[in-house]
């Protein structure tokens, strides 16, 4: 992997005293930088496209929600756009799975907290569309933060039902994402994805298979019933693991009531 270094001009302009190297990620490179003894996530955006604009819009719209990173500054620097964002101390769920395996109350607690962070986002008619362990970071105090709203969508946005490939992460995707049924995507898509995360955290496995082909075959069966070995996890997962989104909880409160704390 090729290491990436910030330019001397960028370090000087933002008065960065220290930084951690980052690797490139498509049109975005992220460094963890120190400015005036405070850590930030500094994102270098090569092309300020609609994904960038959407992520900024959502983060700003829900400024004050402690479960969504705060954007401190947006600035043009040369040909790039720079975002200076709150740095979330902690680890993401993909690094913490062993802490949750077999601990149903802990799994339910983190899923409930993540869902409450997303509740106002869902109420505003957005869907995240890429909920997965790497996109949920846990602060030192145990509270989750939802990351990467870059592929989130407003449900009244025509492009969500337009042509083209819809982005998703296949191990944690819903049937409608897997099948490319764009018109079926809603916040109930996020419900399904949170069910997969809960099952994964409790069992350290995936509910519908380890490969795309296995998951695809599982999704051909409309009866997506799982047995995690725990009643609370089963109630939640089987409440949201419905092939047809219309069969999942219609109201956010009904969804939250499936999570047994």
Automatic annotation (TrEMBL):
Q: Does the keyword Transport apply?
A: no
Keywords, alphabetical? Kinase, Transferase
Top-rank lineage group of the source organism: Bacteria
Q: Which GO terms describe its molecular function?
A: kinase activity
Q: Where is the Protein kinase domain?
A: 16-261
- PANTHER family noted in UniProt: PROTEIN KINASE DOMAIN-CONTAINING PROTEIN, SERINE/THREONINE-PROTEIN KINASE NEK
Q: What is the name listed in the Swiss-Prot or TrEMBL entry for this protein?
A: Protein kinase
Q: Which organism is it from?
A: Pricia mediterranea
The opening ranks of the lineage are: Bacteria, Pseudomonadati, Bacteroidota, Flavobacteriia, Flavobacteriales
